[in-house]
Amino acid sequence: MAFSFELKHTDRNCSARVGKMVTAHGVVDTPVFMPVGTRAAVKTMSPDELKKIGAQIILSNTYHLYLRPGHELIKEAGGLHKFMNWDRPILTDSGGFQIFSLGETFKITDEGVNFKSIIDGSSHFLTPEMAIEIQNDLGADIIMVLDECSPYPSEKKHVKEAVERTLQWAKRCKKSHHSEEQALFGIVQGGVHSDLRKYSAQNTVEIGFPGYGIGGFSVGEPHDMMFEILEDTISYLPEDKPHYLMGVGNPTSILEAIGLGVDMFDCVLPTRIARNGTVFISTGKLNIKNSSHAKDFGPLDPNCDCYVCQNFSRAYLRHIFKVGEILALRLLTWHNLYFVFNLIDRAGKAIAGNSFLDFKNSFIGQYTGEDFK
Amino acid sequence: MAFSFELKHTDRNCSARVGKMVTAHGVVDTPVFMPVGTRAAVKTMSPDELKKIGAQIILSNTYHLYLRPGHELIKEAGGLHKFMNWDRPILTDSGGFQIFSLGETFKITDEGVNFKSIIDGSSHFLTPEMAIEIQNDLGADIIMVLDECSPYPSEKKHVKEAVERTLQWAKRCKKSHHSEEQALFGIVQGGVHSDLRKYSAQNTVEIGFPGYGIGGFSVGEPHDMMFEILEDTISYLPEDKPHYLMGVGNPTSILEAIGLGVDMFDCVLPTRIARNGTVFISTGKLNIKNSSHAKDFGPLDPNCDCYVCQNFSRAYLRHIFKVGEILALRLLTWHNLYFVFNLIDRAGKAIAGNSFLDFKNSFIGQYTGEDFK
Questions:
Q1: How confident is the model at residue B371 (pLDDT cuts 50, 70, 90)?
Q2: Are residues A68 and A35 in the same domain?
Q3: pLDDT, tens digit, for every residue of B157-206?
Q4: Could you say which of A141, A147, A266, A301 is catalytic?
Q5: What DSSP line would sit under B282-344, residue for residue?
Q6: pLDDT digits (tens, 9 = 90+) for B335-363
Q7: Can you give the pTM of this predicted structure?
Q8: Measured between CA atoms, how close is A55 to chain B, in angstroms?
Q9: Residues of B at the A interface, defined by Cβ within 8 angstroms
Q10: Which of A80, A168, B69, B280 has the most crowded Cβ, counting Cβ within 10 A?
Q11: CB spacing of A326 vs B294 below 8 angstroms
Q12: Which domain does A344 fall in, by range?
């Protein structure tokens, strides 16, 4: 097995931890944020740039790659790493989340899920076994079981059905996965129900995986509820395995979740909001379109040492954003990803020094205004 | 005066030349291609990348910058170099060409030209003096006189009027330009009429400039006619001053024009066609959208040593282009600009060895299919 996880240190004052994942394509220090390369490219960024700003591992979406260009083609290309020229670790999701969130019509049975392609409306049927086969072809270092993510709000009995089905699918995924090079993670579901989360976590752990995704959060539930249930959920997961909070990526939530013992994050948020003109800066969010930046010749964030903040002014970025230059999307994306990587890097150092809570409170105290939820 | 030009060598077998321009922001080896940064950004590219692939000097458009973000703002930012973070030489055009080519309604008088903004339809009046003032504010190393470019075809008497007006405007531009840091180039017009080209060239030279633009080509006239008149036009220009063929940028025309004694080029072509999926390769043009590239895991051009050709396959580039990833536009632009820089670099070496004609014929012999006109 090419994969291992070493828990190196837990902050003395909270559950925040630093660790080390070893994968077939190299080492990943945790906590870690995985930028999303939906269709085999992290939007606007080149692989070299991602490395330069500190990306250790990226996530790519099985759903999109399965539809275009197709997993067979990527296999023929020598796998996703070679296809997209990324030689560091990759995680692929199972495709389930996109089926449920993007598709207008899908039908779940115990056997699998029937869905229509968002591209051409064609019908497809995805089973746990196929999710593994596709991910085997893509060749990511970490792959995920096919799960059923309940929307919020959902009737509890439907959430329970989804938990049961996710457990059955997890067993089938594990059974059909044979690659030594790829680590298969289980996924905990259960919505906002403590008892279902406990049940899901305990039974997923019972099946046994080298790491655990925590799915079904940040789907519309109240923010405080998420952290309460998240803390509870993590308590049922083994300490010596990575904890991956799926789909959360705003700065304050990342810090809160790290404080509860989360090791891995992914989210389109930093890249998506950049393309809408919004960046994270140390004092909160900033929208580059605002006219107040028209003659501001200072950097996006005076406290940031990224390439963008060292070389371009708000006035310039606003100008090129407003006239529609692609360079604007690139530079804002660059800054946002750097901001998140740098934040987590500093969080890791604080954890090592047992001062994570101070670090978190200081950051959040400075970061004014509403964060994304 | 910060500007000088040194003619270093002329090929023994043709008029192709290598030279050196010294500007306020550094040295430019000629022949040279200037990528176009219309709105203070070369589309999709960062300044660092442009340097990495060999851009010595870029062109930016006065018309666009005047309208957005405004020359006063750029002056306040410390000039265009600082505003866009480009510390190598810049050339700005006068704005005239865009007024005539983009505007639906404009009215030329001897005093200047009245036009409506393509952004909001507002009315503006540009005089030769204003063209200089705006370009003084932008602070480019080389600036251009306001000229009147005749479309093709035009009645000869209209072309003659445009030549006369361009001469009058050139005098007024020269008179109102006082910056020692910026070299003001004259522009030769005259359409496809040998006698008018001769008249325009001789009288522009009479006014006296440190360099000469040759305008009004590649506006729809037959291709062969362009080279015939171009050769004739250059014969009336001083040998010891740079010859700048405005708006021409396809590989075969660049080589033909270099052979006639052209030193400088600019064109949106390499960047524009890249965003439509077309690249130059040594055997001709290639459209990445073609299905024949779907499973082609080789590079765009096996003979190219650019970052794109060294790291990405046609299959990958086709995939990311077809799904609309910005990275595709970046990588194709990167390759096309590198292709042109590399072509001119090799042309310069061939000139130094008096073998330019062989080089040109060998390139054109390999480059099959129609080139852009």
A1: confident
A2: yes
A3: 999 999 999 999 999 999 999 999 999 999 999 999 999 999 999 999 99
A4: A266
A5: TTEEEETTSGGGTT--S-S-TT--SHHHHH--HHHHHHHHHTT-HHHHHHHHHHHHHHHHHHH
A6: 999 999 999 999 999 999 999 999 999 99
A7: 0.98
A8: 17
A9: 39-41, 43-48, 64, 68-69, 73, 76-78, 83-85, 294-295, 297, 307, 311-313, 315-316, 319-320, 322-323, 325-331
A10: B280
A11: no
A12: 274-366
**Interface predicted TM-score of the whole assembly (ipTM), two decimals:** 0.98
Same domain? For A260 and A294 the reply is: no
Preceding omega of A35 cis (within 30 degrees of 0): no
**Could you give the 3-state DSSP secondary structure of residue B20?**
strand
Q: Quick: pLDDT tens for A269-303.
A: 999 999 999 999 999 999 999 999 999 999 999 99
Domain CATH number, residue A264: 3.20.20.105
Given strand A113-116, what is the order of strands in its sheet? A106-108, A113-116, A123-126
Residues A283, A257 within the same domain: no
Q: Residues with Cβ < 8 Å from A118, sequence gap 6 or more?
A: A67, A102, A103
User: A159 in a domain, yes or no?
Assistant: yes
The domain total for chain A is 2
When pLDDT is averaged across residues B31-44 and rounded to a whole number, the result is 98
Q: In this structure, is residue B342 part of a structural domain?
A: no
Does any domain span residue B264?
no
Residues A254, A338 within the same domain: no
Give B78-144 as a DSSP string.
T-HHHHHT--S-EEE--SHHHHHHH-S-EEE-SS-EEEE-TTT--EEEE-HHHHHHHHHHHT-SEEE
pLDDT above 80 for A34:
yes
The question of whether A147 is a catalytic residue gets the answer: no
pLDDT at A371 over 90: no
- Does residue A159 register a pLDDT over 90? yes
Domain end (from A219, A235, A268): A268
Q: Are residues A174 and A308 in the same domain?
A: no
Question: In terms of domains, do A147 and A292 share one?
Answer: no
A311-325 mean pLDDT: 98
Tell me what the pLDDT averaged over chain B comes to.
96
Does B314 map to a domain?
no
Q: Is A93 a catalytic residue?
A: yes
- Residue where one domain finishes, among candidates A208, A242, A268: A268
Residue A102 shares a structural domain with residue A228 = yes
